[in-house]
Amino acid sequence: TSLGFGDVVPVSPVARGLTILEAVIGQMYMAVLVARLVSLYSAEEFARYMQERAKRRRTPPP
User: Fold this and answer.
1) Which region, left, alpha or beta, applies to residue 4 given φ > 0 means left and ψ of -120 to 50 means alpha?
2) Which of 1, 2, 15, 53 could form a disulfide with 10 if both were Cys (CB 3.0 to 4.6 A apart)?
3) pTM confidence score
4) What is the pLDDT of residue 9?
């Protein structure tokens, strides 16, 4: 993963640890964000499907 440091590298152990922590948290943040967006879309589609299904059951056949 790239953290945008360019030619600058962390030298001290503390800086390296913080850099690793930032990289891991950044990856987890993106994964959670994408999962949340997919979940919201799926929930909306499921609700729309259930509404359409309920509407079809209420309407008597011709």
Assistant:
1) left
2) 15
3) 0.59
4) 84
